């Protein structure tokens, strides 16, 4: 009967996980109606990839298009219905 199979260990292994560029998943993108937005930041709190910044100084909402995956959660959670999803045109 054969003994246990020997495995050759090649040395220390390291795996580096980098953040996926989830922006490439996007089919639609959020668009903010600046007349309705009150800069409350609720959309930012719910975004699963933390890609929304509320720029209160300039009174605008900024998205990191490298990570926004177009899931629509921000639009769903906005109490003022200030976000709608528009078709992605592929020009990040
Ligand atoms: S949740 Fe709506 S109103 Fe609040 S900052 Fe976001 S877009 Fe503006
Ligand atoms: S669509 Fe999704 S990923 Fe993009 S900003 Fe809104 S909540 Fe974040």
Automatic annotation (TrEMBL):
Residues 28-57, 59-88 form the 4Fe-4S ferredoxin-type domain. It holds the Pfam family Fer4_21. Its cofactor is [4Fe-4S] cluster. Keywords: 4Fe-4S, Iron, Iron-sulfur, Metal-binding, Repeat. Coiled coil: none annotated. It comes from the Bacteria. NCBIfam families: PorD_KorD. This is 4Fe-4S binding protein. It comes from Dysosmobacter acutus.
């Amino acid at each position: 009967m054969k003994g246990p199979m020997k495995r050759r260990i090649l040395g220390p292994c390291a795996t580096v996980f980098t953040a996926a560029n989830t922006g490439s998943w996007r089919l639609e993108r959020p668009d903010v109606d600046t007349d309705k937005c009150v800069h409350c930041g609720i959309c930012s709190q719910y975004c699963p990839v933390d890609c929304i910044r509320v720029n209160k100084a300039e009174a605008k909402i900024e998205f990191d298009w490298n990570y926004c995956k177009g899931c629509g959660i921000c639009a769903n959670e906005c109490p003022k219905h200030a976000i709608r999803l528009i078709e992605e045109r592929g020009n990040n």
